[in-house]
């Protein structure tokens, strides 16, 4: 008989309680760990990447977004599903979660019995729809085709049940994702999902008899620096709703809200939320529920990764994490991240900075991050480098390639390495 086994691609991040096993000459894990990055590095001297989570920063970002946005805030779990991150966002008032897979649905429900989960992937397996509906209490589903509508109706129909008994199909929320023209966001998301205008009109009309809540959603793209892009998308959604001629209760303006990087200072958060609110009012949609799906905007500043330099060759540093780990965005997309050197025990002032590029630990030449990353010119093998703004997609995109999938995780009190305009910062402890 065949032995069928399941394994995730990446082993879980190791907590520092296991750090003693990852350090040479360490007899046991430390009984207590410091809550500052520099002190943590000095004590652990980690040879594996060390993910430093900032719960206070995450909670503050959640509060900031909720205060600025005139509607319901759904955290996009795909951006960082680490349970400690989810707990920090919950502490900041997030109660709604945008999930794109059954695994994300299960994770959120296992942590928060009272969370509102929205299944926002436009293409889903039938079994995933049925389990989300029947076992986890998910009621909102996004779609962008007649075929997906048929699947959802079949799997949430009169025969569908939850843990207590039959579920009225009238409880459904059906959200039609609208295609947008290609935009100027760093990550354009217009090519894979979304119904074109005529199809979106037809889907609204077809879904209306089967939905307690009917909505329209869109996504302008990730790291969008143009507030007017949201206003244009709201205008398009309004015209589609008007043409459909049916009642629509929800307008989901998606994600894409930008954060700061060393070469990027985005408009303040208020510029985006005010542009959305003005467009909603101008097009007569003020009676609708307004949703947003921030991911990067909530979590980017809430985590950093500490790397160790394993070799230096001129202006190239060989480090122990890379594009197959937490630094995927520093590879082909070319994101620059804030960096600083950590050299425990040194009393000498740092040398003048110079630009460096990184090679990651794998054997693949493509494991290359050109930066430039500005660090002291005397940076050498054995030094550590903290890379900031990695709360977004850093941990989520890790792979097990070449066996470099081990990392540690700690919660720290430090402020983020870079602040984004419009977001509250916690009071430094």
Q: Mind explaining what this structure looks like?
A:
With 429 residues, the chain is of the alpha/beta class. It folds into two domains: 16-54 and 300-411, Beta Barrel (Lyase, Ornithine Decarboxylase, Chain A, domain 1); 121-292, TIM Barrel, CATH 3.20.20. It is built from eleven helices and 16 strands. It has helices at 19-22, 37-44, 55-68, 83-91, 102-111, 126-134, 146-155, 197-207, 227-244, 269-282, 296-299; strands at residues 50-53, 72-76, 96-99, 116-119, 140-143, 173-177, 213-217, 250-252, 289-292, 303-313, 316-319, 339-342, 353-359, 368-376, 384-387, 408-411. The strands form two sheets. Strands 1, 10, 11, 12, 13, 14, 15 and 16 form an eight-stranded mixed β-sheet that branches. The longest helix is centred in the middle third of the chain and has 18 residues, at 227-244. The radius of gyration is 23 Å and the shape is elongated.
Task: Summarize the entry for a quick read.
With 429 residues, the chain is of the alpha/beta class.
Q: Nearest-angstrom radius of gyration?
A: 23 Å
Total of domains:
2
Structural class: alpha/beta
| Strand runs, count | 16
- Quote the average pLDDT: 90
CATH architecture of the largest domain: Alpha-Beta Barrel
Distance N to C terminus: 58 Å
CATH homologous superfamily label of the largest domain: Alanine racemase
**Largest sheet descriptor:** 8 strands, mixed
State the helix count: 11
Q: Roughly what percent helix?
A: 25-40%
N-to-C series of helices and strands: HHEHEHEHEHEHEHEHEHEHEEEEEEE
CATH class of the largest domain: Alpha Beta
């Amino acid at each position: 008989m065949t032995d069928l086994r399941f394994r995730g691609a990446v082993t879980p991040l190791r907590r520092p309680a296991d750090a003693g096993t990852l350090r040479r000459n360490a007899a046991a894990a430390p009984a207590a760990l410091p809550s500052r990055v520099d002190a943590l590095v000095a004590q652990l001297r980690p040879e594996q990447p060390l993910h430093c989570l900032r719960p206070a920063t995450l909670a503050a970002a959640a509060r900031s977004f909720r205060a600025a946005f005139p509607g319901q805030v759904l955290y996009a779990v795909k951006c960082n599903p680490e349970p400690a991150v989810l707990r920090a966002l919950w502490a900041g008032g997030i109660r709604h979660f945008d999930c794109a897979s059954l695994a994300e649905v299960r994770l959120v429900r296992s942590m928060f019995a009272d969370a509102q989960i929205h299944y926002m992937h436009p293409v889903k397996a039938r079994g995933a729809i049925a389990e989300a509906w029947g076992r986890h209490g998910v009621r909102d589903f996004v779609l962008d085709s007649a075929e997906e509508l048929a699947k959802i109706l079949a799997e949430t129909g009169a025969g569908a049940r939850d843990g207590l008994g039959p579920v009225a199909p009238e409880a459904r929320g059906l959200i039609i994702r609208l295609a947008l023209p290609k935009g100027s966001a760093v990550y354009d998301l217009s090519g894979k999902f979304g119904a074109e205008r005529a199809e979106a009109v037809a889907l609204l009309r077809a879904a209306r008899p089967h939905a307690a809540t009917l909505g329209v959603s869109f996504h302008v793209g990730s790291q969008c620096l143009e507030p007017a892009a949201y206003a244009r998308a709201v205008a398009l959604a309004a015209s589609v709703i008007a043409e459909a001629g049916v009642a629509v209760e929800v307008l989901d303006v998606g994600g894409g809200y930008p954060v700061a990087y060393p070469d990027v200072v985005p408009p303040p958060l208020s510029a985006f939320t005010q542009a959305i609110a003005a467009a909603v009012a101008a097009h007569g949609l003020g009676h609708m529920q307004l949703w947003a799906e921030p991911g990067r905007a909530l979590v980017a500043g809430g985590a950093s990764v500490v790397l160790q330099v394993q070799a230096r060759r001129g202006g190239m540093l060989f480090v122990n994490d890379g594009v197959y780990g937490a630094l995927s965005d520093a590879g082909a997309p070319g994101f620059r991240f804030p960096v600083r050197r950590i050299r425990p025990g040194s009393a000498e002032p740092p040398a003048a900075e110079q630009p460096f590029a990184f090679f990651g630990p794998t054997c693949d030449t493509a494991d290359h991050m050109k930066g430039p990353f500005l660090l002291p010119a005397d940076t050498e093998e054995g030094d550590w480098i903290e890379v900031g703004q990695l709360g977004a997609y850093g941990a989520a995109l890790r792979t097990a390639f070449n066996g470099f999938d081990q990392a540690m995780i700690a919660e720290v009190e430090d402020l983020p390495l870079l602040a984004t305009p419009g977001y509250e910062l916690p009071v430094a402890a």
